[in-house]
Specification:
6-stranded parallel beta sheet; 2 domains; 7-stranded parallel beta sheet; alpha/beta; Rossmann fold; 13 strands; globular
Length: 423
């Protein structure tokens, strides 16, 4: 335990901040806002040589990435299971083998493989007074141990739930139950210790035991764009009738094909379909999506790309006719950052089948599009919006000021949490 008096210093501990991922934008916005408010803050991005799941290899383009406020910490001290995972990666063994050892890590260490032993931090000379944990259970546990080591206050930030809430994408109830069996006590111990908890929605907050609600603040997912920067770039009468989905797409979103069936029926019924486009930007790693596109004979008008940076993404947002959102198979508590970007760019959002939860409620709250009930509803929406396109009508959603949806504005809530803890 540290007894000497220290200046206030915040650490934000999360994954590799050089990557083009949603978490990157969240924690860079936290870092920027805290610095602007004269809070001494450093973000520590954990650089792992192994890659358990879904991390893309696209670098982010940000002026903050190479500033002194960002520490890129390469992990050197691995436990035995992590060393086996490194060996599996290096020799490109089948994913089922890797998945088996990821499960073994949970059983042995009571946390996922993103756990970082505190010994990896020995070369960092600063000592934090507050640690903000941004990541999975492994990073939360690392932050907890570091908080105890430095006698620092701990803020646990949840973008996704650990044991309380929906089970994570690409996992089933059995896997979730097994993880919960081995890790629940660890999470409860950390929640008991945490000085504050931040979470992205009211529905997820309600999944936590009520005894912790008094120290939970909701810091929603925000848009990566500022209203004043993009409001005059939005194309109200685009030249193409484009339906755009932006970001990673999961198999758990492709379990039903109502949208694709309806869109194919609509598309193949149009005599001159040369101006119709279907975009999936950032979804090129999903083979099931490509198979579905082929099944419905939509290859000629479908554009599937790798992840792109913010500047490359902008035209897809400004020129879209409809934004597509697919529900997450039985999960009603997921509210993604892409929804907020969709809202900011004021084009109709199409939810083909209601999630009966956060996504549908958001669309209804902002009167921002269509919550459908399958094939017939979807077809009717496509024909309605296509006719507006042909008639050259303004297709934007009439919204009031939405500047409060930007990450810059939402990050103010974290500043308040930190300043209260420092008081």
């Amino acid at each position: 335990m540290i007894s000497k008096k220290r200046e206030n210093l915040n650490w934000i501990l999360t994954y590799d901040l050089r990557l083009n991922q949603t978490y990157t934008f969240r924690y860079i916005s936290f870092l920027k806002r805290l610095i602007e408010k004269n809070n001494n803050t450093k973000a520590i991005g954990l650089i792992f040589p192994f890659n358990p799941r879904h991390i893309e290899d696209v670098s982010i383009n940000s002026s903050l990435i190479h500033t002194p406020q960002l520490i890129e910490l390469t992990i050197t001290n691995y436990n035995i299971i992590q060393r086996i995972l490194l060996f599996i990666d290096a020799h490109q063994y089948p994913f089922w083998l890797k998945k088996s050892f990821l499960a073994i890590h949970v059983m042995v260490y009571k946390v996922d493989s993103w756990f970082v032993d505190p010994s990896n931090f020995k070369d960092i000379k600063t000592e934090p007074s507050i640690i903000i944990s941004g990541g999975s259970g492994g990073i939360i546990k690392s932050s907890y141990l570091l908080s105890k080591k430095f006698n620092a206050k701990l803020v646990v930030d949840y973008r996704d739930p650990w044991n309380f809430g929906y089970h994570l994408l690409e996992t089933n109830h059995l896997i979730h139950s097994l993880k919960k069996r081995f890790t629940l006590k660890t999470e409860l111990r950390i929640l008991e210790y945490a000085h504050h908890i931040t979470i992205v929605s009211e529905s997820l907050k309600n999944c936590f035991p009520k005894k912790y609600h008094h120290k939970i603040t909701i810091i929603e997912n925000g848009s990566n764009f500022e209203q004043e920067d993009i409001i005059y770039q939005i194309n109200a009468k685009p030249e193409k009738f484009s339906i755009s989905y932006l970001g990673t797409i999961y198999n758990d979103q492709l379990f039903e094909e109502d949208f694709f069936k309806a869109f194919a029926d609509f598309f193949h019924s149009i005599e001159d379909s040369s101006r119709i486009v279907l975009n999936f930007i950032g979804a090129d790693k999903n083979q099931n999506l490509k198979n579905i596109i082929k099944k419905y004979k939509l290859e000629s008008i479908t554009n599937i790309t790798a992840r792109v940076n913010r500047e490359e993404l902008l035209p897809y947002l400004t020129d879209a006719s409809i934004f597509l959102q697919l529900r997450f198979k039985g999960r009603s508590q997921i509210i993604t950052s892409k929804i907020v970007d969709y809202l900011m760019f004021r084009k109709p959002i199409l939810l083909p089948v209601s999630d009966k939860g956060d996504i549908s409620e958001t669309i209804k709250k902002y009167k921002a599009g269509y919550v459908c009930d399958g094939f017939e509803d979807i077809t009717a929406v496509l024909r309605k919006e296509y006719q507006k396109f042909l008639d050259r009508k303004n297709i934007t959603i009439d919204q009031k000021d939405l500047s409060h949806l930007s990450r810059t504005e939402i990050s103010k809530k974290l500043v308040k949490v930190i300043e209260d803890l420092q008081a």
